[in-house]
Design brief:
Blueprint: E1 2-3, E2 9-10, H1 17-24, H2 29-45, E3 55-59, H3 65-73, E4 82-84, E5 91-96, E6 102-107, H4 115-127, H5 132-151, H6 154-157, E7 158-162, E8 176-178, E9 185-187, E10 192-194, E11 197-199, H7 201-215
Helix pairs in contact: 1-3, 2-3, 2-5, 4-5
Length: 216
Amino acid sequence: MCEHEKGFHCYPKYPSFEECVRFHGHACPGLATGYRVAIAAMNTLGVERPNDEEIVCVAETDACGVDAIQMVTGCTAGKGNLIIRDYGKHAFSFYARQSGRAVRILTSRMDMPDSSEMNALRKKVFSGNATLAEQVRFDSLKKASLERILAAPEESLLTIKKLEGKPPREARIFASVSCARCGEPVADAKTRLIEGSRVCIPCAESIAKEKADHTS
């Protein structure tokens, strides 16, 4: 592991935390946690960052850490190898298709001595009611928190368990058809059959609403 001038830790084989910050837009503890998860997954599975769908990630949250996972592991929504099942848990399952190895990584709640103060300030900052001093203090606590996460021993931050079973199927490519109602192109598998015609989901929902309004 190395350390940049700004204090952000990196791992030479993978994108740095600074690169994840640039992609995400800001540095935060959630992004730092996702970075540690991604690095641990790659090292545990013994894989390099792929160009395609060789690795699959199933994320149980849609929070900030997901962006670090996209940067480090190459699992992205666009390729179909990042699947988000938002259970509100900071847990991530990774599958290496070629080796058949898989792990689930759960983040542990670290004891942060100033977490209560940070949570109280977060409400003020996000609501726009924080004073300048409170904003500065919040930023300082946030930076200290993410630095602790980046520097923490892996075993104190993450629980890594091997998984059995097959990975999710590879991303499917759908044919495009025209919605019978709005005329816009839509993936055929995402259409609904309404009175013998293929319509897109928004149009199907509109038709259902119109029928409900008519019968009420």
